[in-house]
């Protein structure tokens, strides 16, 4: 297994890093974070023009035909900048939900628009119970012939207030849970942005009151929700792992730079053993997380059986490593690291939400143990 990046992938990484460093300064991120949409339309268009939205979408659906490894490199660099906007919800969650469960007509209709940056998607799974599980889905889909009526409320829908199409989990009269394509502007749909810990990644509560769609808007056949959700979680979890690697690396670099500059008792604080140990521990976490994420990215492309093991390992380890590095970064900075004015708290909040998204580390480690037969 060789999961190092190629020369071409290294060029992609360098280009993405330079571009995002110029376009997403601290001031720009904070401005977007405080806005209603956390979204820069010009940035979104530029990313699409560079092919980022199309990166892992097959060419037959208007994509660039690259692999999840290339998309992972983009996500890693986005993690370094705590990138706001609907890229993850659209390109990672939404597009892969369509690729995994969509009909040929649905893919042909939506994926070219996603690849071009003309269409945004949001994945609406969690009901008011707050669980990342199909077991707690209480939103209903009443099927009468070819007409389907949705009733219910979804919570914590990432970018749910700005998406063009919502992918909604709902339970039918036969107790099947499926996913349905619902236009956000359809009659009976209302979306309200909610305040959450990480305001660089906006979330919304979405209510469905007598929303009518058709049976053709279902992803897959009846009762296919679980078949779709498992693989989608693995893909999204590895996407978060890549993002967490980028965030961890940024926290390490921030801590080391400060440790070199900050003077106490006439010397740089980085010369003190306690601070050295913190930075060394962060480096171990970053390099280990990078190995886990890159191995999972390789497996996603080359070895489906290995991916089943690598995905939960990467998601659980990388998100925990990110939170460790974000917390240690604050400790190295001392009092200033706790202030709103310092960027350390932006990474800390993103790290915590990455830890909890799609279930915490305990859930993913249990998934790993189950797949290993432990």
Attribute tags:
alpha+beta, 10 strands, Butyryl-CoA Dehydrogenase, subunit A, domain 2, 16% strand, 3 domains, Butyryl-Coa Dehydrogenase, subunit A, domain 1, globular, four-stranded antiparallel β-sheet, Butyryl-CoA Dehydrogenase, subunit A, domain 3, 374 residues, four-stranded mixed β-sheet
Topology, element by element:
Layout: H1 7-23, H2 26-33, H3 41-49, H4 68-80, H5 87-101, H6 104-115, E1 121-124, E2 140-144, E3 147-158, E4 165-171, E5 177-183, E6 189-194, E7 203-214, E8 218-219, H7 225-261, E9 263-264, E10 267-268, H8 273-302, H9 304-333, H10 344-356, H11 361-372
Parallel strand pairs: 1-4
Antiparallel strand pairs: 2-3, 3-7, 4-5, 5-8, 6-7, 9-10
Report what the structure shows.
The chain is an alpha+beta fold and 374 residues long. It folds into 3 domains: 7-119, Butyryl-Coa Dehydrogenase, subunit A, domain 1 (Orthogonal Bundle), CATH 1.10.540; 122-219, Butyryl-CoA Dehydrogenase, subunit A, domain 2 (Beta Barrel); 225-372, Up-down Bundle (Butyryl-CoA Dehydrogenase, subunit A, domain 3). It has helices spanning 7-23, 26-33, 41-49, 68-80, 87-101, 104-115, 225-261, 273-302, 304-333, 344-356, 361-372; strands spanning 121-124, 140-144, 147-158, 165-171, 177-183, 189-194, 203-214, 218-219, 263-264, 267-268. The chain starts with 6 loop residues before the first helix and ends with a helix.
